[in-house]
Input
Amino acid sequence: MFTGLVETMGTIVHRIDQPPGCRLRISSGIAAQNAKMGDSICINGCCLTVIEINGEQLDFEAGEETLSRTNLGDLRDGSRVNMERSLAVGDRLGGHYVTGHVDALGELIERREDPPWAHLRFRLPSELASQVASKGSIAIDGISLTVVDVDNDSFSVALIPHTLEVTTLGQRKIGDTVNLETDVLAKYVQRSLGMNPIDQQGSNQ
Output
């Protein structure tokens, strides 16, 4: 479990293709501190497992499913990624609960600069629109953000200077894809509302 508060931007040192997946070697900075084999680290919103440690360089494996359904498939040597270590019991929760399980890819369709702020609009699959609410939370490339407005196939966020400086969203351009994870509470609410009385009765037996 994560909070969506990015600790550092890592850099892909080496992408090693290992069909059907790949191995990612990442210069991880603070995210490598006290890292242990098997630790879970959120990379652009995807929960991956540490499989090798060499100082500040951490290795991860990404499978075919992850590469095809997230923007990790687009990473190359030199790419920057958002990184967050998993939440420890008792830690402060400054963002919102992020599972590290990406729901879908979104696309940056509008970027309006309002220095030092920026307003970004992303396209999202219409089936996810009901899980996104104005003033609600969403994770974009692992970053916990507050939704400004939402319609049937897009939503917008306003980014403060700090977010633009310390995350990859400061570098995103029109047409770039991002990993989206909707609020886990919204998923359960939608699931509950979608069950008919017979389903609910049967689930209680």
